[in-house]
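Subject: for your reference before the review

Hello V.,

The reviewers asked for a structural picture of the protein, and I figured it would be easier to keep everything in one thread rather than splitting it across files. Below is the amino acid sequence we used in the manuscript, unchanged from the supplementary table.
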Amino acid sequence: MPTPLYDCLRALATQNPLRLDMPGHHGTPLPGSFPWPSGLDFTENGATGDLFGDEPDAIQAAENLWAKRFGFDSCLFLTGGSTQGVHTGLALLAGAGGAVALDRGSHRSAYHALALLDLAPHFLTRPWLEEAGVTGPIPPEAMEETLKKHSEIKTVCITSPTYYGVLSDIPAIAAVCHAHGAKLMVDGAHGAHLPFLGYTGYQAADVVVMSAHKALPAPGQTALLFANGFELAQLQRWGSVYGSSSPSYILMAALDLARDYMEGEGTARYRETARLAENLRSRWPALQERDGLSLDPTRLTLKSPDGFALADALREQGVYPEMADRGHVVCILTCADGEAEFTRLERALSETGLTGPCAPYPPPPGPPEAALTPRQALFAPRKTVRLADSAGQIAACQIAPYPPGVPVIAPGERIEKKHLAYLREIGYNISTADIIL
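And here is what came back from the structure prediction:
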């Protein structure tokens, strides 16, 4: 009988590609040569513990080790990725029907949470960095202005780092939030490695979501929810709403092993990765801290006159980056990458000849008018039309090209001619849009 997916993955693996995307293990053996043993694939049976149970067990002991290492009061294992964590965190902090200040560049899971919880968003916009061709960090001053203007906001959700590796000043933003009686949640999906490199900024937030599988040696879907000022039982309550009642013990065990590995050899290897990445950024066109940015020390965001062409050329040489846009190629570099992998990447870059200043990219226009709430937009009847014919209609889903990875149009917003003109100008290649009937 055919096994098309398995055959596809096996064929790709035999080519030994240089994997600079997620999962962060990049195809290397997991810590402890961790296989996928059916013998360990248990469920709750009285001896294995219960992810959402109230009795101390091995799962809680493993979660407590993560919480202690990262400086939080509590930690909940997630087997549904950071998507589960974003939904859980917003339910925990905002509840239903309230107002939230949301980073406009949030992952789509946050937009789905707005709809599921019937939250009213007040969007936080980021400054456009023309030379870098990406959006910058969220200014604490903008946060102050938003919370002064909207005193009903008691929950703030931002993303740090961004896909491009840009970090916002979490302690400064948290101080502003707390001064106004608001809680801060950080989507740190791409930052689970940063505390092992000495970064302490996350500890200032009230809730932080991290994907272990994005930057640590851990399998897909493994993630973590951290909180200060909340007991584990509160995390479990909402985590059980959005997570499976039969979580994978293999994934949870992998989280346990990943932390143990990072406590020793993994951290040393990650520091070496950071050194190699800094050296590579100094010799190739890439986002750098001298651009006025605070950056993830291991994220490599290459600049290019044609990022899509550069990514295609790299793939032809067996190098698989995480993402490309018109002016950049993003590579996720982890503790799985050493001298040999960096040499292979640099050799491939030399062959392409496609690095250089990033393609000119105009800043996106201001957000459109919100005609429906996110919840109304999610559940309303919809149809698909040509994007060029959608002016005046209400969007049923996000239209979010990279860069800047920020929705030009969010669900429930009215599509305007200026937004369509912007999408044409940047060469956005999606021809249709879902609209509300």
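For the response letter, the relevant points are probably these. The longest helix spans residues 249-283. The mean pLDDT is 91.

Happy to draft the paragraph if you're swamped.

O.
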